[in-house]
Task: structure prediction
Amino acid sequence: VAYGRTSDVVLVGDWNGDGIDTLAVRRGNIYYFINSLSSGNADRVVAYGRTSDRVLIGDWNGDRVDSLAVRRDNLYYIANGFGGGAADRVVAYGRATDAVMVGDWNADGIDTLGIRRPAPAPVQFGAGTLRVGTDVAPGTYRASTGADSCYWERLAGFSGEFDDIIANDF
Ligand SMILES: [Ca+2]
Ligand SMILES: [Ca+2]
Ligand SMILES: [Ca+2]
Result:
C-alpha cells in the first residue's frame, strides 16, 4: 500500500470500529485517516492539537473505535470522535518528563495511560551514625559491591551502651 508522504508520521488504529486496524498519517497537526488497507485518498482529514504535541492512539471510551489524544507536557487532550476542535476530555497525569504508553490495563475495553519514570538515583552515605527520618529516609540500604565488609546497627538511642542496639550484623 502506498499512502501519504515519506515525511509523514504513521499511526495505526481501528478508525471505524470494524475490528481491523488501518493507517493514518500525521502531517503537522493534520491527520489523514484511511479505513481500508489500500492506496488512495484519506476517508477523513482532521486538524487536532498543535504540531508540537505528541500524539497517542487509543479507544478512550470503549466504543471499539480508536481515536486521537495529544500530549502537551503532562496534559492529555482526548478526542473520542474525529470532529477536531476541542478535546472531549483533558486529563492531567504524571510529569512532563515521564514516558507515556497506552493500553487497556484492566481489560474493560477502555484504553488508558501508563507512565514510565526512571528510578531515582540511589541515596548514598558513608560510615557514621545517621538518624532515620532526619539524616536518611527510611528504606533499605546495601553495602556497595566491592566493599570488604559492612557493620550496621539499628539503635534505640545514642548512649553508646549495648542496650541501645535493637539489631546489628556484620
Ligand atoms: Ca477499521
Ligand atoms: Ca473510542
Ligand atoms: Ca481499561
Summary: Residues 34 and 88 are 22 Å apart (CA to CA). The chain has two domains: 9-116, 122-170. The mean pLDDT is 93. The radius of gyration is 26 Å.
